[in-house]
């Protein structure tokens, strides 16, 4: 109670610290073919390709983007059709057609894809919607900003939050699909507020109703980030690397009009942004906050640390206080920890997908991520109970986690082997889709083949499904890990029989036991 009182007192004192300032930035000039920046990394454009704005839609080369996300791109010259696919997800577009397909569902594009030599350009909004990316467009230097690609098919995304004093260029254009703001001399219309996108462009978004989720204040004290939220605002916490940081998102929430922070600033669009005081905490280099997205609104805090940092998240429903506590050493809230040097084998268990990335959706609407986590936790519990191995989880709760983070967790723990669990699915256009079933095991490197062969035998024993054998495929988590690594596809969620079995307690228990048995057989235990 004493600590809770201290936190409330800190938040009550926050308004006294409010110091508003506006940032300014000189306009960028000159002409350029444009560039694409994904998660702070500039992507190489094909030679001769120029980013175009067609009828208000920014067109970008789809191959450049989706291949960086780890998707496979197929091109049919005769029909001029592009197919993007990965792990059952399939998107099809045709040059000159405003109709596309995503997993068999027809979609209407706001601009038809066009061909530029051997490159196909597609509307940026389509890329955003289909591949879960936040987008921005800076018209001054023709730069597309993409972020948020924290998916099961891509390295972990960066969070391009601005510094405390960013400012847009003199000539700005709203992100495609957004309503452009009035000129700087024209006040916003009643019922709206002007918000600055993270790429510097300015848009107008509705002012949230008083009952909408809001973030009212924040402070960093006693090695804890404490955020005051209201209106049902919920925090989603994600670990990100390069550099190491903890990202805290309040999706659907905006800043309250009286929001307070340690060193607050105000963007040129009027939205709060700034940093919290972290002096005296050597393991935390910076905590910054901003309105990361406007559609939907998302308030983001970024805790930048000097290295890998464990954390625990707690929410006080009575006060609305959300606390991200860095004073932990265990694996609470899915924050894995190196189990140390005990002399025992270290088994890295990876529950595929999670958080915002649900994975495949079954015939009856069940989510793949739920199955993956349930079985992995059961297998880990058996390993821990038997006591002959140390277990490191990539996640133990429903959090969003990037592929490279999964690799980093396993390698930081010096894992002996890596086991990732998934469930398969097929596109609705796949022939005899509902009849395809069975279990299969994937590996990428030759040294992982012996593990794959053993685990496939136990996978089939655990599921009772058809044996689809061992398959080689270039998957990020099995390719980039240093230890023997495999990915189990337990069954097909698009097959009624497999789906029913995968979500039964009996199959999940059997599969967890067989995963452990396979690991023991591989290690000769």
Strand order of the largest sheet: 18-19-24-23-22-21
Give a short account of the largest sheet.
6 strands, antiparallel
Oligomer, anyone?
single chain
Q: Return residue spans where pLDDT drops below 50 for at least 5 consecutive residues.
A: 12-31, 149-210, 330-341
The total of helices stands at 9
Classified by CATH, the class of the largest domain is: Alpha Beta
What structural class is derived from the secondary structure elements?
alpha+beta
Mean pLDDT: 74
Looking at this structure, what is the CATH superfamily of the largest domain? Answer: Zn-dependent exopeptidases
Domain count: the total is: 3
Strand percentage lies at 25-35%
Helix content: 10-25%
Distance between the termini: 49 Å
CATH fold category name of the largest domain: Aminopeptidase
According to DSSP, the number of beta strands is: 32
CATH hierarchy: architecture of the largest domain: 3-Layer(aba) Sandwich
């Amino acid at each position: 109670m004493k600590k809770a009182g201290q936190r409330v007192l800190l938040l009550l004192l926050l308004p006294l610290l409010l110091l508003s300032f506006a940032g300014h930035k000189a306009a960028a000039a000159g002409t350029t073919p444009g560039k694409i920046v994904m998660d702070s990394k500039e992507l190489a454009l094909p030679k001769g390709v120029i980013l175009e704005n067609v009828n208000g839609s920014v067109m970008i080369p789809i191959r450049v983007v989706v291949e960086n996300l780890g998707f496979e791109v197929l091109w049919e010259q005769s029909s001029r059709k592009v197919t993007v696919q990965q792990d059952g997800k399939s998107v099809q577009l045709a040059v000159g057609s405003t109709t596309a397909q995503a997993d068999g569902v027809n979609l209407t594009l706001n601009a038809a894809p066009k061909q530029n030599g051997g490159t196909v350009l597609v509307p940026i909004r389509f890329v955003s919607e289909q591949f879960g990316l936040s987008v921005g467009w800076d018209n001054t230097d023709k730069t597309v900003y993409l972020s948020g690609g924290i998916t099961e098919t891509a390295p972990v995304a960066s969070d391009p939050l601005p510094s405390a004093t960013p400012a847009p260029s003199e000539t700005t254009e709203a992100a495609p699909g957004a309503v452009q703001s009035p000129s700087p001399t024209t006040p916003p219309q009643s019922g709206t507020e002007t918000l600055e996108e993270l790429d510097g462009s300015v848009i107008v978004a509705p002012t949230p109703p008083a009952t909408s989720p809001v973030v009212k204040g924040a402070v960093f004290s006693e090695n804890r980030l404490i955020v005051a939220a209201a209106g049902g605002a919920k925090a989603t916490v994600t670990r990100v690397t390069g550099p190491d940081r903890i990202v805290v998102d309040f999706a659907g929430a905006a800043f309250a009009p009286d929001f307070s922070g340690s060193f607050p600033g105000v963007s040129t669009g009027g939205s709060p942004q700034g940093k919290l005081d972290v002096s005296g905490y050597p393991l935390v280099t910076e905590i910054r906050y901003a309105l990361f997205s406007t559609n939907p609104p998302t308030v983001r805090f970024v805790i930048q640390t000097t290295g890998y940092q464990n954390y625990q998240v707690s929410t006080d429903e009575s006060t609305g206080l959300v606390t991200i506590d860095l004073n932990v050493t265990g694996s609470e809230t899915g924050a894995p920890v190196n189990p140390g040097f005990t002399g025992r084998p270290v088994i890295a268990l990876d529950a595929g997908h999670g958080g915002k990335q649900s994975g495949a959706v079954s015939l009856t609407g069940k989510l793949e991520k739920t199955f993956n986590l349930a079985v992995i936790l059961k297998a880990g519990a058996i390993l821990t109970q038997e006591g002959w191995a140390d277990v490191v989880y990539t996640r133990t709760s429903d959090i969003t986690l990037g592929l490279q983070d999964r690799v980093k967790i396993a390698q930081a723990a010096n894992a002996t082997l890596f086991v990732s669990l998934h469930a398969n699915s097929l596109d609705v256009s796949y022939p005899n889709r509902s009849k395809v079933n069975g279990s299969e095991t994937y590996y990428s490197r030759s040294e992982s083949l012996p593990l794959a062969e053993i685990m496939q035998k136990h996978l089939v024993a655990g599921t009772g499904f058809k044996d689809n054998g061992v398959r080689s495929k270039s998957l990020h988590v099995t390719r980039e890990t240093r230890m023997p690594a495999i990915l189990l596809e337990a069954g097909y969620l698009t097959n009624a029989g497999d789906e029913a079995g995968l979500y039964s307690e009996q199959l999940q228990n059997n599969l967890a036991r067989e995963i452990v048995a396979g690991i023991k057989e591989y290690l000769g235990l």
